[in-house]
Structures are given as C-alpha cells and as structure tokens.
Q: What sequence folds into this?
C-alpha cells in the first residue's frame, strides 16, 4: 500500500512575521520548520506501519528550496522517501493553486491513502485536504482524531472530531484523511534517525514535470488579491495589579464597572 | 441585486445567533438566500426570515447527514451554478471548511476563511481576515467568483431585517463521490447546559496553572455565576481536567466574547489565536511576565488558588 503524507514547510510560529512587498508572508526572512500540525500526520503514518500495515510512506511538500528541510525532518521520524515540488512560479499560490500542484504530484506519485495535517500553521485554512480530495476524486475525511486501515476491505475507519459530535466514519480507499493534534503526540527523532534520514531518497519535481503551466499557479492565478495588510489596532494598555489580598474585590469592581455583574 | 447563498447546515442552526450574524453579513453583499439542510421546520424558516432571508432553499434528505460534507457541497454547487450568486457564505466550522474547499474547486472560485469582516467593494466582496495571531488585518478581494467566505463567530453583530421568506425545496441526489464516505455512528458530545462557547458573550477559561481537575472546578463555578461558557488551554484538555470541547486556540475553538477571563494561562501564541478577538480581557497569573498580562485590560499577578475562590465568594456576595 502507498501512503503519502502532505507536509508543509512554514515560518516558525514564534518568530516575528512580516509581509513582503507583494503582500505575501515574507518566508525568506524568517526561520522555517515542518508544520507542527503536519508532524501529527507523519506520526500517524509511521504508527500505521509500526502497527503492521504493509505500506510505503512518501512525504510530499510544495514549497521553496528550503522546504526540503521539512522533508528531512519527517523522514527522521520514519518513512521511506520524499518528493519536493519546487518551482519559482509557485510563489504566492493560493489554496486552489496549491491544491492543484499537490493533486498532480499525487497523481504522478500514486497513492492509496493520503494523510495531511488539520491546518497549515501559517495559512490556517483547513481547506487544502478537501480540495486535493475533490480534484483526485478520492474520499475525504477531515479532523480525524484516530484512524485504522483495513487493507483487505480497502477502507479506512476514522474517528472524526466535529463540533458537537464525534462520528465514526468509514471511507473507501483511495482516501484523503486530515488528522488533528488529538491523534497522538509526534515523536522526537533520535540522532541516529536524523542521520539515517539524510540517506533516504528525495526527488524534486518542477511544474513541467507535472504538466502544469506557470500561469495556472502563483500570484497571477490567484482567485483573490490582497489589497491591504496593516497591523491590527493596538489594544489599549490595561492595568496590571499585584494581589495583596484584595485582588478579588478589585476584579469584581472592574466587572461591575464594565457591566458584567 | 444578486443573491448571496448562506449555508445553514441544520434546522437547529437556523435559530443560532451565529446564523443571524451570517445573514446580517450577507445583506451587505446582496440578497441573502439560505440553503437549509434538513426539514423546513416552520420555526427555523421564520427565524431566518427575521434576519433577512428572502429565500430558503430546503435540501432535506437523511442521506445528507449520512454522507456529510461532499453531499452538502454538491447541493451548494448545483445552486450556485443555477443562481450565479455574488458570494457563498458559511460559518467557520469544521464542516464548512470541507464544504468551502469542495465548492471552491468545483466553481473555480476564491475561498477566504475565518473572515472577521465583509463588505462590498468595487469588484466584489472585500473580506478582512485577522492573521499572524491577531496582530495584522488583511483585506482581500475575490477576482474570480462567486467567492466562498467562511465567517468567524461573533464577527458581525446580528441585526434583524424581517422579510417573508419564500421556501423552495431542492432535489438532493447523493452522488457516487459522496457515497465513498459514510458516517456509521454519531456520538453527541455531552451538553454542559452552558452557553455555546463560540457564541458566548462571557468566557471563563483555565490553563495549566489551575493545577488539577479540582483547580479547574473553580473555573466552572465562576463561569456558572457569570452565566458564562467554560474554556481551557490544550494542556488542560490533554490532562483531561475538562472535555476537549472546551479547548480554545489554533486547534480548538475560536471565541470573541465581550469578556474573556483567563486564569493560570500563559498566553501562548496558539492560544491567543483563538481568543484575541475578545472585547475585554481579564487575566490572573502568578508570573508578572506571562504574555497574557500584556494583552489584558485588567491583569492580576496572583495565585489562582487564592484569587479565584475569593472572586467566586465576592461575586456570590454581590449578586445575592
Ligand atoms: C501546533 C500547535 C497548536 C496548538 N494549539 C493550541 C490551542 O488550540 N489551544 C491552546 O491553548 N494551546 C495550543 N497549543 C499549545 C500552546 O503552544 C501552549 O503550550 C498552551 O497554550 C499553554 O497552555 P497554558 O497557558 O495552560 O500552560 P503554560 O504555558 O504552562 O502556562 C501556565 C501558566 O500558569 C501560570 N501559573 C502556574 N501556577 C499558577 C497559579 N497557582 N496561579 C496563577 N497562575 C499560575 C504560569 O505562570 C503560566 O503562565 C498548541 C501548540 C502547537 C504547537
Ligand atoms: N504547500 C504544501 N505542501 C504540502 N502540504 C500542504 C501544503 N499546503 C497545505 N498542505 C497540507 O494541507 C493541510 C491543510 O492546509 P491548509 O488548508 O492550508 O490549512 C496541511 O496540514 C498540509 O498537510
């Protein structure tokens, strides 16, 4: 069985983010990393194989040259190979264009099960998995907090964590499953695993390799344009007091003044 | 004026304030038409009309619940192709993210998620999003439509604008693609009897600093006194001091109440992402350097185990 995990290389969440002149996130100037939410998807793939599933794990990323570091991090956690789609024309792609590139790369790679994170920690849209699934005519299950695969039946059974209810969902393979951070803690790779990951194969594809023309992606193909990006209005500086036994009374007074009591 | 399609995923959602906010936002862009999934409950239709839904398209089939997001997306896609709406509006929920993604691919439209504001622009809707953990506001305009927008709860205050809604039933055919995913069982999460977290006007939230399930119980007592919803950070739900349903932040719920009272919460960026939109913030933390104190309107450097029980007592005394 072929498992492909979609992993995104994102700006370090704790860094000071900036906009570049074209109003995209300035990725060049900020340290990057494998999205922490995608590590949960990597972890689930590795656990499936450790649990006895006969599968080969490939990681797929669409991103700048440095995104290869994200693939290495994933490979250090486990799995077999990486695919990096890298092309200058991709810069500034929106979710629709990114999903096109991911879908074409998946088509070329071949897959039975695609695992993704629940959201990218930079764009935070949670729409790419649905878009990829729809383009590939594959089954879609998002917000999975647990999953099991039955290769004989050709199904994946998922616990889907929705608002207000938890569903048990059965999807036919091929399927795209987006996993949440509730699925299980991602492992820290050991030093030896990090060294071993350096020898695992990583293939790089360009848009030409995928039969995508540059005008289908990037800023120019975007379905929406950013017209303005400004700092949010500063919150008015508040009062900070140190409790000397009367803080509860002061909080209650504050709540009364503001009409909450 | 062109229609704006508004997804209401169930009759129960028709009477929620988040739906009224969605309809209020839709009215700025055109004439709101609701796509109601489920039976055309008269009470639901009346409530939708109250907030300006001139048209209610009813998609009623038990299969929609069984087959989930793809089937629902297909209903919207069919209608959008027929009506060429100015926009498709959905509440920012987990279901709607799937639906938004599929609808955008099928219509080849732009999708803008977690909007905090929408308004008409020269080319079409202008959408404001809050990014970088709430530190920046970004305006976008869709250049290919109909744009699909998901709106954050409490982003737009509901304003009534009564109209008599015309109801039209639409055909539901669940296609082969939708049938590949089947819901085999559904377990409703236990209801706390408290206000819904996303819509609550007051939220009392506890973090790791509450120390234990007992420490969290005081958070719940204070919430009940204030008629508030209860929130928590990820470590608290990981420790099972409360249900995961209460988690606020990047991977939990987004809230924007009038008052957010945080205790034992450091204010990590992933937590702030889910509560930064709160109108007034009160925070109690024993560490004067905790980032949450920097965004609080009133910050207390103090011990949760001392301040919270006293606050409960003080409020009980005042509200007796
Ligand atoms: C990808 C990703 C997604 C995440 N998503 C979320 C999310 O959705 N929601 C979320 O909350 N977190 C999320 N996190 C985790 C987040 O990064 C923080 O670890 C978390 O928010 C910290 O929770 P906390 O404030 O309760 O704990 P801590 O950071 O440990 O803070 C505890 C605070 O309590 C104070 N304290 C201790 N004892 C007392 C006392 N007796 N009285 C008063 N104060 C006391 C301490 O001074 C400290 O400031 C995510 C992390 C990642 C990587
Ligand atoms: N550029 C990318 N490369 C690889 N995977 C991606 C990329 N963008 C999004 N994804 C996947 O899609 C998920 C959801 O992303 P998003 O819709 O942007 O929140 C992520 O967790 C990733 O698994």
A:
């Amino acid at each position: 069985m072929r498992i492909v995990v979609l992993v995104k290389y994102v700006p370090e969440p704790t860094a000071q983010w900036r906009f570049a002149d074209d109003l995209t996130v300035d990725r060049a100037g900020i340290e990057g990393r494998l999205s922490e939410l995608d590590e949960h998807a990597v972890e689930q793939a590795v656990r499936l194989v450790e649990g006895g599933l006969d599968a080969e794990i490939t990681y797929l990323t669409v991103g700048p040259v440095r995104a290869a570091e994200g693939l290495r991090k994933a490979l250090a956690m486990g799995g077999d190979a990486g695919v990096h789609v890298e092309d200058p024309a991709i810069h500034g792609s929106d979710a629709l264009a990114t999903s096109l590139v991911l879908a074409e790369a998946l088509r070329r790679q071949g897959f039975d099960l695609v695992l993704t994170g629940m959201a990218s920690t930079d764009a935070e849209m949670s729409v790419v998995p649905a878009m990829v699934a729809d383009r590939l005519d594959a089954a879609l299950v998002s917000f999975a907090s647990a999953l099991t695969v039955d290769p004989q039946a050709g199904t994946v059974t998922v616990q889907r964590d929705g608002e207000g209810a938890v569903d048990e969902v059965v999807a036919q393979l091929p399927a795209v499953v987006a996993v949440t951070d509730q699925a299980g803690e991602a492992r820290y790779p050991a030093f030896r695993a990090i060294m071993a990951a350096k020898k695992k194969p990583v293939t790089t594809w360009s848009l030409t390799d995928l039969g995508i023309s540059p005008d289908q992606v990037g800023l120019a193909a975007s379905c929406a344009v950013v017209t303005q990006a400004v700092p949010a209005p500063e919150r008015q500086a508040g009062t900070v007091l140190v409790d000397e036994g009367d803080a509860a009374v002061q909080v209650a007074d504050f709540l009364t003044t503001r009409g909450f009591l | 004026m062109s229609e704006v399609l508004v997804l209401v995923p169930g009759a129960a959602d028709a009477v929620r304030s988040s739906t009224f906010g969605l309809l209020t936002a839709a009215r700025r862009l055109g004439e709101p038409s609701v796509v109601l999934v489920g039976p055309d409950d008269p009470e639901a239709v009346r409530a939708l009309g109250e907030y300006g839904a001139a048209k209610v398209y009813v998609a009623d089939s038990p299969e929609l619940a069984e087959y989930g997001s793809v089937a629902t997306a297909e209903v919207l896609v069919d209608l959008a192709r027929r009506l060429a709406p100015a926009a498709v509006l959905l509440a920012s929920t987990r279901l709607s993210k799937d639906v938004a993604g599929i609808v955008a691919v099928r219509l080849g439209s732009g999708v803008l998620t977690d909007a905090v504001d929408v308004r008409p622009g020269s080319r079409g809707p202008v959408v404001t999003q809050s990014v970088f953990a709430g530190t920046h506001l970004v305006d976008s305009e869709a250049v290919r439509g109909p744009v699909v927008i998901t709106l954050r709860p409490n982003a737009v205050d509901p304003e009534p604008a009564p109209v008599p809604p015309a109801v039209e039933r639409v055909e539901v055919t669940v296609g082969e693609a939708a049938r590949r995913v089947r819901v085999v069982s559904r377990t409703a999460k236990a209801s706390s009897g408290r206000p819904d977290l996303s819509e609550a006007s007051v939220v009392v939230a506890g973090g790791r600093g509450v120390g234990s399930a007992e420490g969290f119980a005081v958070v719940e007592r204070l919430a009940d006194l204030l008629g508030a919803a209860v929130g928590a950070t990820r470590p608290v739900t990981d420790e099972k001091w409360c249900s995961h349903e209460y988690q606020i932040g990047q991977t939990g719920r987004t809230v924007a109440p009038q008052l957010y009272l945080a205790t034992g919460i450091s204010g990590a960026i992933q937590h702030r992402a889910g509560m930064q939109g709160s109108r007034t913030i009160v925070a109690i933390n024993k560490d004067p350097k905790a980032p949450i104190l920097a965004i609080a309107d009133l910050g207390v450097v103090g011990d949760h185990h001392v301040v919270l029980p006293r606050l409960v007592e003080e409020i009980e005394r005042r509200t007796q």
